[in-house]
Every structure is written in structure tokens, then in C-alpha cells.
Design goal:
The chain is built from four helices and no strands. The protein is mostly helical.
Length: 96
Amino acid sequence: MKNRKEKIDIINLMAGITTDAVNKLKEAGTEDLEDASKMAVSFLNLGTRLLRESPAFREAFAQIHTEFFKYPESAETICQAIAALEKSAASGPRQH
């Protein structure tokens, strides 16, 4: 088993690689963005499945959102969500 410093070094390395890759994607061409989009959609689909199937994931998801809503930075997000819901409701039922 790795000691704590080695674990922290590995986490820092992974975070640095991920941050670097994301920053490069900001300047990427259309093809690279399409690949990034596919990856993001895969992660979102995984998240949706975890919401359906994992009580522990749902609990963690609820906790982080509950915590976010305690801060003033959430006010604009809440207002935008309410406006989007009202607009959606006014346009009639969604087509599936």
C-alpha cells in the first residue's frame, strides 16, 4: 500500500494532467471538441444511471446541491432554472 505522500503525489499528477487537457480543449478544433462532447455525454449518461440505481450516489448528489444552494452564488442559477421551467411550462408538454 502506498504511503500518504505517494497518494497525494499521484492525485496531484492526475489533477494536473486533467486540468491541462481541459485547458487545451478550450482552444481545440471542432473535431477535438466533438470527441470531448462524446466523453462528456458518456459521463452524464453514467451519472443518470447512477442516479437511477445508486442510493449512495443520489444522497451525495443531493448533499452537494443542498450545500451549493446555501451560498449567494447559487441565486442566479436558481433564478435561471425557475425562468427556464416557467418558459418550458408555457410552451406546453414536452415531446418524448
